[in-house]
Amino acid sequence: MSGSGKKVVVGETPVYLDTRKPLELRVKDALNRMTVEEKTRLSYADGRFSTPGCARLGIPGLMYSDGPHGVRAEICWNSWDYAGWTNDSCTAFPALTCLASTWNPSLSKAYGTAIGEEARYRHKNVLLGPGVNIYRTPLNGRNFEYMGEDPFLAARMCVPYIQGVQENGVAACVKHYALNNQEHWRNHIDVQVSDRALYEIYLPAFKAAIEEGKSWTIMGAYNKVRGTHAAHNKLLNNDILKGEWGFDGCVVTDWGAAHDTYEAAMYGLDLELGTFTNGLTSNSSLGYDSYYLGNAYLQMVKEGKVPMEVVNDKAARVLRLIFRTAMNDNGKLGAMSNDSHYETAYQIATEGIVLLKNEATFKGESLLPLSQGKYKRVLVVGDNAIRNLMQGGGSSELKPKMVITPLEALTEKLGKECVKFTQGYVAGRPMFDRADTFSQSVIDSLYTAAVNEAQKADLVIFMGGLNKNFQQDCEGDDRKTFQLPFEQDRLIKGLLKANKKVVVVLTRGNAVDMPWLKEVPSVIQSWYLGSIGGKALADVITGEVTPSGKLPFSYPAKLEDCPAHYYGEISYPGDGIRQEYKEDILVGYRWYDTKKIKPLFPFGYGLSYTQFEYGKPVVSSSQMQSGDVLEIKCTVRNVGKVAGKEVVQLYIGDEKCSVLRPLKELKDFYKVTLQPGEEKEVLFTIDEEDLKFFDDTQHKWVAESGKFKIYIGSSSKDIKGVVEFDYKN
Ligand code: BGC
Q1: C-alpha angle 586/589/590, rounded to 5°?
Q2: Domain-by-domain residue ranges, the chain?
Q3: What is the spatial distance between Cα 271 and Cα 669, in angstroms, rounded to a whole number?
Q4: Residue nearest atom 11 of ligand 1, based on CA coordinates
Q5: Is the domain covering 610-728 a CATH 2.60.40.10 domain?
Q6: Best substitution site from 255, 276, 474 to test ligand 1's pocket, by max atoms within 8 Å of Cβ?
């Protein structure tokens, strides 16, 4: 039953150590030399963020780190406390929602490369990111770590990130597979979803991460799917991931997501971390052998309850991962917080910021961009202008080596004498599992001070939004309301009464209610922008950079409009045991379009300081047959006064189908840079794959003959041109 446990002969390089030899040969050779105990030992942790190799054979173990916005500070070996090192700070990159808002895959590649270099430098073998769970409800505490509501956008943006990370010999770990679309009850909620919604909405980004990005690891989620925990779920792991997608890497648990030895062994789990089993309830006990894939697994193997092929398959996967990372002598040493990493973080931050509103209410002029010297007294109000937004949020928390706050950057740009700051509201400490409460007198005095200052100012910039506190943009639970916290709505209204010239900048990873929207002339959607975020924001506000970000999710006008909430509690958050994704495939704009519900801001939306004029789109043929490729061309011209970037979006709609289909779906996009007066032609190609839906009766993707429409737009709502064609299968 066990391997031969052969000794290594001195003077001879065994095949498994010879990096010139093919990977599979090395894996096979190592496996042949290992005992069954050594093989099973590969599959569970020996520290909070580590798993062992095989010391007898000189095979090192693996070191893991969060992910996904920077390399996390060192955690103690056997507890969740920070280790208190002084050399573990990093570059904080913008949150993945911001990356998605750039709609720029080349920035995604740069992000992956830079964070991969930092992970390599810190001797991390597995970087726990990117996250690609679909934005289903604006209450989800972790949306800020994900890439929005559209599977195509998330897929296109996650692939280059993964490739960039792995070029460094560091494994990406795409997470949280799958259907971890809320934090509330995340450890046990049992998600019921149709095959169609699974394949069309919730899986494509994971599929792209595996098939195109070739991610070496994937993280099994906490929740249940159709009755079984996701981390050891036959459908997700054996049938889809390792079966349909041919995944040859490792399924890693989320920390503590394993719940059963037999299921873990048989249903595709390869690496178990963070478990709190009996005897492991305290953080200090070194009880790794009591993990589900620990002694109990070995016992089952010895009793013949788990076949040896399963053991060999798991061990082979872990060895493959070790050879790809810890034993990858690609000569790369990595790099930490260098100029190029900061430049990457800055570029992503500037391109991700979304201008939501900029009305020309003041004698035909809008407040933004704010030209330097125009206003003598600029009042900055709000906690997010000075807060370290890398703190809190859960596992994505970072210890940045350097942070430029928006207040610092604005003060530097506009001058000390011009900028005044007042906090306006009190926002609490970022504590896991707990939220601060405040006395009304503190709230009122900050409010009054801000409103008084606003009366004296020429312009007010309010910098608020959510933060990384518990029950906001934070792991472990969801937001409790759609409203802004800390009485910010009242404050914004108070500021508006005191001064008409108010720019609202909201930092967050989620849509929020905006009851004051009509009265505020200019609104900016900022995300968690990372180390250089303050400068990026100041540069966009002052017009040094023209905003070009587009929303990666729709903003509902009210929470009940949102598809997950429309069907009541059983759909979100569930009844405490189960939940049903009743909106099915109609997630995000697919819902608003099809149900004709007007969102506050649509998916793909974002303004610029310049204007773009679209030509009429032209399609290469009005007929398509199986195997054909159609070309769609469209010109875009910058007709404004400053250089800018526009995201040209291509959606396809099936006019008539035997099943319900969304009005249209994103199938391609392209970001163009245009100087004033410049025109460019954008060329898209589509083929029959772009026309298909997942037919759950046949379990395959199908395109039905008939008429299709191609929509070219500047957002999912702002459609600039439509062309039609007939498809024959
Ligand atoms: C999170 C993961 C994270 C892991 C390790 C879990 O609580 O859900 O995303 O990678 O902890 O910190």
Answers
A1: 30
A2: 15-324, 353-553, 554-606, 610-728
A3: 37
A4: 255
A5: yes
A6: 255
Taking 50 as the threshold, does the pLDDT of residue 455 lie above it? yes
* Phi, psi (rounded to 5 degrees) for 667: -125, -15
Q: Active-site positions?
A: 254
Torsion-angle region of residue 159: left (phi > 0), alpha (psi -120 to 50) or beta? Answer: alpha
Q: How far is the C-alpha of 162 from the C-alpha of 171, rounded, in Å?
A: 8
- Tell me: pLDDT of 458 over 90: yes
Q: Tell me the per-residue pLDDT of 419-440, one tens digit each, with 9 for 90 and over.
A: 999 999 999 888 877 888 889 9
Q: What is the pTM of this model?
A: 0.97
- Going from the Cα of 252 to the center of ligand 1, the distance in angstroms, rounded, reads 11
DSSP line for 608-632: -SS-EEE---EES-SEEETT-EEEE
Q: Is the CB of 254 under 6 A from ligand 1?
A: yes
Does residue 510's CB lie within 6 angstroms of at least one atom of ligand 1? no
What does CATH list as the number for 353-553? 3.40.50.1700
Q: Which of these, 101, 158, 102, lies nearest to 130 by C-alpha position?
A: 158
Q: Is 397 in the pocket of ligand 1 (CB under 6 A)?
A: no
Q: What is the CATH number of domain 15-324?
A: 3.20.20.300
Length of the chain measured in residues: 729
- Looking at every residue in the chain, the average pLDDT score rounds to 95
275 CA → ligand 1 middle, Å: 12
For the CA of 67, the closest atom of ligand 1 is 10
- Per-residue pLDDT band for 7 (boundaries 50, 70, 90) equals low
Angle at 557 between CA 551 and CA 562, to 5 degrees: 80
Please state which of the ranges 28-32, 433-437, 616-620, 633-637 shows the lowest mean pLDDT. 433-437
CA distances from 208 to 94, 196, 236, 303, 458 (A): 22, 17, 15, 39, 50
Position 537: which residue type?
L
Q: In what order do the strands lie in the sheet with 217-220?
A: 50-51, 62-66, 126-128, 171-177, 217-220, 250-253
